Amino acid sequence: MGMMIGISFQSQTEGRPTLASYSRFFSNDLVLAGLARTVVMSGLVALCVTVLAYPLAYYLARATSRWRTFIFALAIAPELAGVVLRTYGWLIILEDRGFINSALIWTGLITEPLPLSKNLFGVVVGLTHVILPFGVLSLLTSLQGINPNLEKSAQILGASRLAVIRHIILPLSVPGIVSSFLIGFTMAASAYATPALLGGAGFKVMATMVYEQVLFYLDWPFAAVMANVLLILMLAAGFIGSRLESRLHQKLHL
Q1: Which of 73, 107, 135, 246 has the highest CB neighbour count under 10 A?
Q2: How many CB atoms lie within 10 A of CB 233?
Q3: Are 241 and 178 in contact (CB under 8 A)?
Q4: Taking a C-beta distance cutoff of 8 angstroms, is the pair 181, 240 a contact?
């Protein structure tokens, strides 16, 4: 980490100390667009992971049937395959001649393939699938810590199922929700394989741009600047998340 910070202040050719790489970063519209694209992509992935993982984690936390083990295995099964393998699977499904477009064209619902890959939609779908097991595990730990007797007591006193979820389960599971969101955001922001394969050459995010600078342009100082900015972005997300969690705790009198 110290070496990366030091390299970011070096000149590419002469090795002397300079702020040229930082000045170039904040004056390059293409790089700033990539940074904004990274933030949007990571936020959408974190939101999708948290929303999809919550009901599944709640079922796993409360279920007592024999199906619980089977569904838990299905929830974490994607981690048994590599990220590249899973991404290629989504590429086969989402590409212009993939399963979805072929099925829609065959049924006559569309005449031209839908743009499901080589864009933000395809990357968000692929990353959500990759990161979803981590969101489930994060929320499962939080939901298992909530005493089931609280829900039973509220229902005995006349609270509806929706009221129990809104006033008991959701407030008590705020730490898990924040944790799931942060895990999803940081893992999506640093992901390389899925944005590179599902996003295509025109979909630039910080991780793919760092790769290009190191291997294609051999501009290590500029790549170090990008990596430092990406690290600061994730640290800022973690700080804001912890502050938000603390404020929600105070607001809800937890």
Answers
A1: 135
A2: 19
A3: yes
A4: no
| Residue 219 backbone zone (phi > 0: left; psi -120 to 50: alpha; other: beta) | beta
Reference 79, options 42, 126, 131, 122; nearest CA is 131
Integer Cα distance of 113 and 215 in angstroms:
34
251 pLDDT above the threshold of 90: no
Average pLDDT over residues 24-43: 92
Residue 10's SS3 state is strand
Contact indicator for 173, 142 with CB cutoff of 8 Å: yes
Question: Which residues, 6+ apart, have CB-to-CB distance to 203 below 8 Å?
Answer: 37, 118, 119, 120, 123, 195
Q: What are the residue ranges of helices labelled H in 77-158?
A: 83-94, 99-107, 120-144, 148-156
* Cα-Cα-Cα-Cα dihedral sign, residues 196, 38, 138, 92: negative
Maximal C-alpha separation, the chain: 75
CB atoms within 10 A of CB 82: 11
